[in-house]
Amino acid sequence: MTIPVLSDGLTPALTGSVFDAFQQSAGRWPDQAFLCVPERTARAYDIAAGEISYGTMLADVLALSKRYRAAGYGHGHRAGLLVENRPAFFVHWLALNALGVSVVPINPEFRVAEMAYLIENSDMCLAISLASHHQRLRDGAARSGARVAIMAPDEAPTKALVAAPRDDAPGLQTECALLYTSGTTGQPKGCILPNEYFLFAAHWYRTLGGLATLQDGRERLISPLPMVHMNAMAFSSMVMLVTGGTIILADRFHPADWWDTVRESRATVIHYLGVMPAMLIGAEPSAQDRAHSVRFGFGAGVDRRHHQAFEARFGFPLVEGWAMTETGAGACIMANHEPRKVGSNCFGRPPAGVAIQVLDDTGARCASEQPGELLVRWAGSDPQFGFFKGYLKNPAATEEAWAGGWFHTGDIVRVDADGDLHFVDRKKNVIRRSGENIAAVEVEGVLLQHPQVAAAGVAPVPDEVRGDEVMACVQLRDGAQADEAMARDIVTHCLKELAYFKAPGFLAFVPRLPLTATQKIQRGELRTLANDCVAAAGKGTCFDLRTMKKRDAVAGGAA
């Protein structure tokens, strides 16, 4: 399918919605497998293994969409989706999208406080959720004071509790999803993503070429990344949807039998996070290491020490890319052509449609090899084409992000003499642990709710497997005992209020935090302090509590 280009010579003339694109593919490849549920995923979710064709999925989507319409849902409404990486996610997403209902994917690890914020901020009127999460949703709705209808994925849609939907038909600029991303100033921000965002992500990926060349109707893509993230929802799922490919569903990454699932599902493409190669390369070499059909992996953050060794052992390239939830494919950069400069944190050079600047702290352009903040925009007539449409209810943050007509990424990069970009560090106070972006300020806010905590500062520290780990430097109130029991009590408190991955993995008691004259945390000095404390973990008042961070690590029976 050829998509015409607008008069600027760069911007594709996209039309319709995600549902429209799926319906077209279902008409072209009705018998092709749209979804594949491997045995490993079936066991984890207690659902049937096997494949679901495009034709079967379309019939299910149309029937469900009709029921949603009859219940009063339509253009302008929002619905939460808490069904993990199951086939139900796609049935409900597409059925709702056909009506112009935006979906709000919900992280199943969220606690009640996080649920309450999401419900209130998003104005969702409906939540489709696994029954095991219903109580948390009800508690979150009660805490927020919102009226939300809650239903299981296999139930008939609950009657809408909100005003009638808009009269106009949904289209390219209709909100398709609201994805939340951690920022630097407290609570997560909701990124408004229209149909255009998703359709362009698919078009961008489909036309990449080079090492990432895709064949219509033949690809099978496996990704263990959650559907609450843009990579899984906007890139891997969408490119399979428009090319007649198969989405292989994985509940999460299981290193022990990962290759068994890859072989069983006949995957041709893998999406990865840097944590995955680090775990896989640590396993004993096997004669089966190259017994697979994978042609390339697409991801970010592979450890430079493992990159070349992984490719040599498993026989396919790990193609590094860069993007953010806010940028979508409007500024996605990928090292899909040789030379990729493996082992140098290189993620390629900007394609024709992406304009960049690399600026120092004074706002001056950086010279070759000089690190600076990456600023991006679409190079066509609309600088925000392919990007998010703003942060929900936060125009000030949106305006700040687009200051001067460029999107400020908060990532520090360097451009080498050949024009290739290399990732250096994050400028923003965000911790990236196993692919999850964690706002230090959000964790600090929860720490300060503990009755014995007088002050707290949170910073990233290196983790061999996860990239970053959350490190908390805590100043206790007078009279509190700075021992391991107190440290565990504080982390237990965090696990009640935050998803497990956000809780501190290390906690150190310090006499004072490094502060500015205006009593703000000096982030650079805090990082130094955090790393010094971790180096002494197990001695004195710094404790390694990473074993407390488990998916089911919820104290007191809280969900």
Keywords:
single chain; 559 residues; alpha/beta; eight-stranded mixed sheet; four-stranded parallel sheet; 29% helix; 23% strand; disordered C terminus
Describe the structure.
By secondary structure, this protein is an alpha/beta fold. Helices cover 29% and strands 23% of the residues. It has helices at residues 18-28, 39-45, 54-70, 87-97, 112-122, 134-144, 195-206, 230-243, 258-265, 275-280, 304-314, 395-401, 440-447, 484-497, 523-535; strands spanning 33-37, 50-53, 78-82, 102-105, 126-129, 149-151, 175-181, 189-194, 220-223, 246-249, 269-273, 296-300, 318-322, 333-334, 354-359, 372-378, 407-415, 421-426, 430-433, 436-439, 453-463, 467-476, 506-509, 542-544. The strands form 6 sheets. It has an 8-stranded mixed beta sheet, sandwiched between helices. α8 (230-243) links the parallel β9 and β10. Mean pLDDT is 93; it is low at 554-559.
What order do the helices and strands come in, and which of them pair?
Blueprint: H1 18-28, E1 33-37, H2 39-45, E2 50-53, H3 54-70, E3 78-82, H4 87-97, E4 102-105, H5 112-122, E5 126-129, H6 134-144, E6 149-151, E7 175-181, E8 189-194, H7 195-206, E9 220-223, H8 230-243, E10 246-249, H9 258-265, E11 269-273, H10 275-280, E12 296-300, H11 304-314, E13 318-322, E14 333-334, E15 354-359, E16 372-378, H12 395-401, E17 407-415, E18 421-426, E19 430-433, E20 436-439, H13 440-447, E21 453-463, E22 467-476, H14 484-497, E23 506-509, H15 523-535, E24 542-544
Parallel strand pairs: 1-10, 3-4, 3-5, 5-6, 9-10, 9-11, 11-12, 12-13, 22-23
Antiparallel strand pairs: 1-2, 7-8, 13-14, 15-16, 16-17, 17-18, 19-20, 21-22, 23-24
